[in-house]
Write a structure and sequence with these properties.
This protein is of the alpha/beta class and 274 residues long. It has a single domain, classed as Rossmann fold. The chain is 43% helix and 14% strand. It contains nine helices and seven strands, in the order αβαβαβαβαβαβαααβ. The chain has a seven-stranded parallel β-sheet, sandwiched between helices. Strand 1, helix 2 and strand 2 form a beta-alpha-beta unit. It is globular and about 60 Å long. The structure holds nicotinamide-adenine-dinucleotide. The site of nicotinamide-adenine-dinucleotide (NAD) has 29 residues, from helix 2. The site of nicotinamide-adenine-dinucleotide has 29 residues, from helix 2.
Length: 274
């Protein structure tokens, strides 16, 4: 078999119906374009109609297939109606990717109940009920892959991220529950936890005179991750190549949790030319 045919057999997403929330965002947009580029039919869901339209045009310009669904992940009627529309149009959902998420940085003591509820509703409760709505369609065909986007903050906390970190820890817990309860239907569930990714929202931190260096010191690769660098692992988990991977959390952080690069170590190889 040719290399092309082998690559296609292992990693192609041709014909797979992929529903993704938060598709109009920095990471979601990259994931959607990346997976449409290897054959997926992307059902892009987001609250931002304008963002969805831009994404749909970009995917079409590159020859990919996608359809946009305006959806509020905190609204059960909206969730049910979008899932019904996707199933009506395509017959099934092969892969669900829960990406939508928000954060508001505030000290633990400053957080008010409405902020707590908003972050939890979008980041955690939505993952529970969207997945609960989609899964019967996967159970019917005894196959499916669920990918939940977690975060570095589920493991390594930063000040001002208490609710966000708790919501993402919850996402990892839900991922394990999904993997355990639905394995008998051939459904796999995994989490992908990005480290410090450069998006329009985080640009200001990377450009900051002290915070940018603080971050670089904590990352072995000494640079931010880019949304495109999340595509490979998510595409793998969406593909049949990952048929024995379930219940896992994949950290994509350039070597941050492992220890980072806080100081230079002695080595005769430092700055050596080869
Ligand atoms: N950017 C990072 O450094 C980073 C790091 C770790 C984890 N993450 C996680 O990755 C995911 C995507 O982050 P991003 O940086 O692309 O953020 P982003 O703000 O660019 O995208 C989030 C998307 O979610 C959508 N959204 C928000 N509320 C919604 C709602 N109620 N209903 C439907 N859609 C809604 C927004 O419209 C937006 O398009 C999030 O879950 C985030 O927590 C990001």
């Amino acid at each position: 078999m040719s290399i092309d045919a082998n690559l296609r057999r292992l990693f192609s997403l041709e014909g797979k119906i992929i529903m993704m929330t938060g598709a109009a965002g920095g990471i979601g947009g990259s994931l959607s374009k990346g997976m449409a580029g290897i054959g997926a039919i992307m059902c892009n869901c987001d609250i931002s109609e304008k963002g969805l339209k831009t994404l749909e045009d970009e995917i079409a310009a590159e020859g990919g297939k996608s359809k946009s669904f305006v959806m509020d992940v905190t609204n059960m009627d909206s969730i049910k109606s979008v899932v019904e529309s996707i199933v009506k149009e395509y017959g099934t959902i092969d892969v669900l990717i829960n990406v939508a998420g928000i954060n508001k940085r505030e000290g633990f003591m400053d957080v008010k109940e409405d902020t707590y509820d908003r972050i939890m509703d979008i980041n955690l409760k939505s993952v529970f009920f969207i997945t609960q709505t989609v899964v019967p369609h996967m159970m019917k065909k005894k196959n499916g892959s669920i990918i939940n986007i977690g975060s570095h903050n589920a493991t390594a906390m930063l000040g001002g991220c208490s609710v966000y970190g708790a919501s993402k820890s919850g996402v990892l817990g839900l991922t394990r529950a999904m993997a355990v309860e639905w394995a008998e239907w051939g459904i796999r569930a995994n989490a992908v936890s990005p480290g410090h990714v450069l998006t329009p929202l985080t640009q200001v931190t990377w450009d900051h005179p002290t915070r940018g260096d603080y971050l670089r010191d904590r990352i072995a690769m000494r640079r931010p991750g880019y949304p495109d660098e999340m595509v490979g692992i998510v595409a793998l988990l969406a593909s049949d190549s990952s048929s024995y991977i379930s219940g896992a959390n994949f950290v994509v952080d350039g070597g941050c949790l492992c220890g980072g690069a806080p100081w230079e170590f002695d080595s005769e190889y430092r700055n050596k030319e080869f």
